[in-house]
Structures are given as structure tokens and as C-alpha cells.
Amino acid sequence: MPRSHSAGRRLAAPVTAGVLAACALMLPGQQAHAAGSVVKVTGSQGHWQLTVDGSPYQVKGLTWGPSVADAGKYMPDLKSMGVNTIRTWGTDASSKPLFDTAAANGIKVIAGFWLQPGGGPGSGGCVNYLTDTTYKNNMLAEFPKWVQTYKDNPGVLMWNVGNESVLGLQNCYSGDELEKQRDAYTTFVNDVTKKIHAVDPNHPVTSTDAWVGAWPYYKKNAPDLDLYAVNSYNAVCDVKSAWEQGGYTKPYIVTETGPAGEWEVPDDANGVPAEPTDQAKADGYRKAWGCITGHQGVALGATMFHYGTEYDFGGIWFNLLPAGEKRLSYYAVKKAYGGNTSGDNTPPVFSSMTVEGDASKVAAGRDLTLATKVTDPEGDRISYEVLANSMYIDQSKELTPLKATDLGSGRLKVTAPDKPGVWKIYVKATDGRGNVGVETRSVRVVPPPVSGTNIAQGKPATASSQQTSDYGDCPCLASSAVDGKNDTRWASDWSDPQWLQVDLGSRQSFRHVQLNWETSYAKAYTIQTSDDGQNWRTVREVTDGNGGVDDFDASGTGRYVRVNGTARGTGYGYSLYEFGVYN
């Protein structure tokens, strides 16, 4: 902690002039040391190192995910892993407890400053770095303010300006304009760097981008950066050769790395990225660290991704401890960083997981059986949980538990989701000791087969309203709900009630109805029949609809059959992929 201004007034009196002189010589050095570390990039071309108060410092880090409020809970664990550094993406008034807690545990922080459009492929907030002087001036005032606030905090290792914005600018601009914006952005990073150096000469400044495509811009436009920084996952072992071929004259750190991401893996049989196994992810961290340490004198360390606790789509892919439970990757990083693993109890390990039957044709709402082979290294009792995620249907990150029946020998039976599309199914194996193994597979959920003939298919259909504009996947006409295709749909106006009816051509009997709803579904509706299209009889009423596939027996007779929606399940209209009527 910084030395109090009153500390000097506690000196005993009277004192001799010699003692006073000695104190005068000593106090500045003591205050500087107490006020925070002096961090430098030292050495020469290809022989650099980071030093903290004159001692060599290799960044053995992780990106930080928990809330600042949980810093006291997790910092001791990070320290036990051999971690000496964490990385953040933003620095503001809330950062002090994180810096303080990190310092108290012997950990330092690569303190980030966020610039738009940050986050690479998922970036947002386009800025014109050629003309938007208001934004640039605001950042030039904002960032140095927090540097001034925290420069004497012993938890600070260095400042990091921006995250993947050179890549992210491609979402805002193209062609020559994109090149001009990238030059302007990296020039602005240099302006920020000079401002930070003026406030704080004792901590280096870097800037992160995705892969090394940003480095030529930094080389040309940001000479004041002390070192470069790069986010690279499966390709991290190629950074060394890219640095050598680029003729760069600054060292670098890797600010995100780990197992292969969605963008780096092949698609599975259902056309979605095949998530690596727990073992493959652990190997990804080991490989990354080996390649980083293999670039001696240039790569000064890494903050690998990610010390996070979220238990969602991204959390399962990258977090070392989702919901606080430790993965194989957690122990791989701990071993790489020199943490003591001798007494560790480690997670259950999947050797296989398969979907029984055809994973490309899983009937909505019907039984789905998963066959797993899992062992625990210490022989601990394994408990199972099955979860589902609809990321590739509606971009949801959430994992929804499915009630599972343990059939023995690692076989688990659940009810498949009732919304068609590709789902990810997760099996979570815990050992009761705070460890978890997770394996995932995709399944393509389809409407369940129905015996009999769909007498509505291809027949004339009308509706109370329909979206006729050529927008997105529309026009979405009434006829699209009876064309036998589950990728075309009818969509109504955004009001209640709305109906869709089909003319069977003659009076016919039916016994079963299947509705395949789009995201905009009916929470309440009736199935009705009519002989003349004017007078209707209700054969089925639904008051608790939840979308997906509604598949039920409903007996009736008539020339016309309609679904009459009385309450929407969303703020949009009613939307049906298919309205099947079976005899």
C-alpha cells in the first residue's frame, strides 16, 4: 500500500542533522518502493526480459473472470496455481479492490483499457478514428486519469490499451477506408501510450489484438508501445515464426490463449463446431505454454484464457472452473505454472460419449439416450447431470438441465428438447471433491414422425394476416405452413387473435395434429374444424403452450381445420413452420 503522508511525521525528535540527512536520503526510495513496483522491459533485440523492481519476471497468468467482490475468494487459489498475473479488459473506479487483493496475494494485474470496436469478430460501437475527435479526446482524458489513480498501486504490472480493435474495425469499414481506420486507430493507441508514459514512467504499455495481423500497424504507427500483445488460441505456436518473419523489434506477451476455439475446429456431422474434449483442452493449454516459453527472449509470458466461473456455452468451452468446479484444464495450467499438484484430487475423465440412434434425427420431446464412459482417477463416486443448449438455434448461451434417468453403465436417458434445430447436449460428471468433467455432443432435433397421412400438406391455406414483405426469410405466407418443409414458415401480424386455416377440399376425419412453431409461438390456442369455413367446433384447447413442437391426438371431422391463436408467447406474432393434420 502507498505510504501515508503522515508517516514521516512519526520520526522521533530531537534528532541530529546527520540523522535527518540520512532520513532525507532514505525516504524517497522507501516511498517509491512502497508506492508500487517499477516494471521495465529490459535487454536488447531478441534478448528481452520483463523486470519488476530489477528482478526478472515471467508472466504466468490467467485472464480474470469473477467479480471484483469475489477477488478475496479466488486470489489465494490463483496463487496456489503458480499464477503471478491476471489480465483485465477495463480499469475504472471499481478496480481498486481487485488491485489491492491481487497485491496482497503476490499477484499483479495487466490492467486493460477498452476501446471501440473491441472484441474482434463480436465487436460493437464503430468509431471513426479519423474524424471522431470527441471520442478520442474523451479517452485521452479518461485513461490517464485512472493511470494517475492507480500507478502507485503495487498490484499493477502494466497497462493494456484496447482489445482486438484492429480486427474489429472490419465490422465497421472495408477496402481503403478500413486501412485508413486501422492506421488511425493504431496511431491513436500511440497517442494514448504517450499520455500514459507521461503520467506513469514506471509501468510498460502494450496493446492487444487478435493474432498478429495488427502488428504491422503497430510497427508503423505505435513506436511508443513498450511491447506487443496478442490473442491466439490454437495458432499460438505460429506466433514465433510470424514475429521472426515480420522483422519486429519489440517483445510480446500472449494475452489470451488456450484450446482451439469455435472458429478453429471442424464442423461435426450436424454442421456445428465440434467442441474439443476435456483432454484436448488440457493439452491445448500445455501446448500453448510450451510454445510461449519456447520463444525465449521475445515472448515474455502469457495470461491464458480463462479463470472464469460462468456455467454456460462459453464457460464450458473455456472456463477453468465453471460454477467453481475444477476442470482438467485447471490442473494442466497449474502444473505448467509450477503449482504444487502432489496432493491434488483430479476430475472424472470421459473416454467416450455417443448418442444412441441417429444424432441427426432426434425426435422432439421423445427419449434420447446417451452412452458415456467415465472414470475417476482416485476412484471417487461419480454423479451425472445432463444439460442442453440452443446456441445454434437462437444464440442463447444458457444451459438448461434435463431430467436424466441413470440406466447404469454410463447410459443416461433424457427427454429430447421439443424445439427443432441443432442442440448441444452436455454431460457433466462430478466427483464430490469440487472437480468436474464435461463432454458434449450435438443432436439435430426434428419433429417426431407421425403414422398416417398428413392430409393438410399442399392444400390451400389462408390466414387472418401474413407477412408479405421480402425481408429475412420472409415473405412468410399461409401456404408455407402446409408445404411439408420445416425451413419455411407462416408469420402473422403482432396482435391477438390470429388464425391459420387449411381447406382439405372435402369433409374428412383426422386423429392427430402436429404444430412446429418458430420462436414466435402461441401460448394459448384452439384447434377447430368447420364444414363451411364459418361455423367452428373446437376439438382441442391449449392454454400452456411453450413453443417447439406440439404433437398430440385430436379427433375431428370437417372440410376446414384451423389453429386459432388467442395469446402469443412472445411480443411478436404467431409463426408456424408446419401445421400437420393426420388421418
TrEMBL record:
Composition bias of kind Polar residues appears in: 452-470
Q: Which organism is it from?
A: Streptomyces tabacisoli
Record's signal peptide: 1-34
Q: Name one GO biological process term.
A: carbohydrate metabolic process
Q: Which PANTHER family match?
A: BETA-MANNOSIDASE
Q: Does the keyword RNA-binding apply?
A: no
Query: Which region ranges are annotated with the description Disordered?
Result: 447-470
Single GO term (MF): beta-mannosidase activity
The protein's name: Discoidin domain-containing protein
Every F5/8 type C domain range: 445-583
The organism's place on the tree of life at top rank: Bacteria
Sorted keywords for this record are: Glycosidase, Hydrolase, Signal
